[in-house]
Write a structure and sequence with these properties.
Elements (H helix, E strand, L loop, with lengths): L1 H24 L7 E2 L2 E3 L5 H13 L3 E2 L3 E3 L1 H10 L4 E7 L10 H4 E19 H7 L10 H6 L8 E4 L6 H12 L6 E4 L3 H13 L5 E6 L3 H4 L6 E4 L18 E2 L10 E2 L5 E8 H6 L1 H9 L4 H12 L5 H14 L1 H14 L2
Parallel strand pairs: 1-3, 2-4, 7-8
Antiparallel strand pairs: 5-13, 6-9, 6-10, 6-13, 11-12
Helix pairs in contact: 2-13, 11-14
């Protein structure tokens, strides 16, 4: 019996030794504190929460994300004050990158490849009534007056807050299409502006707004039924858009007034952007960034739930739990790839 006990003890020790490295590798980020950032638009909160959960599962201690405007984030990233965010839109954000960006930071994977759709929409019944096909139609008196909310003689456009990449593009459009005297881009809080537009639409009033996908707006206001995408008069790209000018005219867009439609915005890839020092020291995190991806429809679905009131941190954590439960094979595959990269 004594000999049997010794054999069992030796076997048990051997098993513990053989499994110890695997168990340690389950937490390649143990002992590392991570400082994430997050975009100021809440339609990007879900992917940030999912990536944060992934890093935590890998053993990283992830701080609460800092909500930063685009230019401030990219400056903070190259300075090393933050480690990453999941809300890079490229090439839309290219003009906001610091000159030393490529030395200090990089783009990883694709949260949604070609998922960043942007453009202008108008309430469908009013587009039909006034035969609105492009921004140029707002130069007509009857159109401008119909969309003038504050009686200043200009059509009011729910636009982008200061600091967003789209703010610069909209300003460019106002200039090159000679629209400054006809359209007033309202730059207040986007969420508040769109809540007001939705209320106006429900009251039967005309609405005119900029939006992007993923976004709850085009699920509450369905293109083709409630609203329509309209054209810019012609494609006149900003300098930063010239390398992707072929991605500014798109075919097959549901609810567009024409096919193809001239959006005037580059269709962007949504990507994770991280500090190079952080990724070089944390190969598991880098690999997770590279393999993480989401269907656009999943983001839109979650964004719609947020807009319906499920927008607290606890709500978003619950959405993360539910998504992981529904996509466990994919999730576990990402974690396995990240752990393997840390060996």
């Amino acid at each position: 019996m004594k000999g049997i006990k010794i054999v069992i003890t030796v076997l048990a020790c051997a098993m513990m030794l053989s499994t110890a490295p695997v168990m340690a590798n389950d937490l390649p980020g143990k002992g590392v504190t991570v400082h994430p950032a997050r975009a100021t638009w809440n339609t990007g909160f879900f992917q940030e929460a999912l990536v944060r959960r992934g890093l935590e599962t890998l053993g990283y201690k992830v701080k609460k994300p800092k909500d930063l405007a685009n230019p401030i984030f990219y400056k903070s990233l190259v300075l090393g004050d933050v480690d990453y965010w999941c809300n890079g839109w490229f090439p839309n954000h290219d003009s906001q990158l610091p000159k030393n960006f490529s030395e200090k930071a990089d783009k990883y994977g694709y949260v949604v490849k070609a998922g960043g759709l942007q453009g202008y929409l108008v309430s469908k019944k009013d587009a039909d009534k006034y035969n609105i096909k492009s921004l140029d139609d707002f130069k007509r008196d009857e159109v401008r007056k119909a969309f003038d909310k504050n009686n200043d003689g200009k059509a009011d456009l729910t636009a982008c807050p200061p600091g967003w990449g789209c703010e610069n593009v909209i300003a460019h459009h106002m200039k090159v299409y000679d629209l400054d005297a006809y359209i007033n881009p309202v730059k207040a809080s986007y969420e508040a502006g769109m809540a007001s537009a939705l209320a106006e639409y429900k009251s039967g009033e005309p609405i005119f707004f900029y939006t992007w996908a993923p976004n709850w707006t085009i699920f509450k206001l369905k293109p083709g039924k409630d609203v329509v995408w309209i054209n810019v008069p012609k494609i006149i790209p900003k300098e930063s858009q010239k390398s992707a000018v072929d991605r500014m005219t798109v075919s097959g867009i549901e609810g567009a007034v024409s096919d193809p439609i001239k959006l005037g915005f580059v269709v962007s890839d949504i990507r994770i952007v991280a500090n190079k020092k952080f990724t070089s020291e944390n190969p598991a995190a880098q690999k997770f960034f590279e393999v993480f991806t989401l269907p656009l429809g999943d983001i839109n679905e979650q964004n719609t739930r947020m807009n319906a009131g499920e927008k607290t941190a606890k709500d978003i954590d619950r959405h993360v739990d539910e998504w992981i439960a529904k996509n466990s094979d994919k999730w576990n595959g990402w974690l396995a790839a990240a752990r393997a990269a840390a060996k």
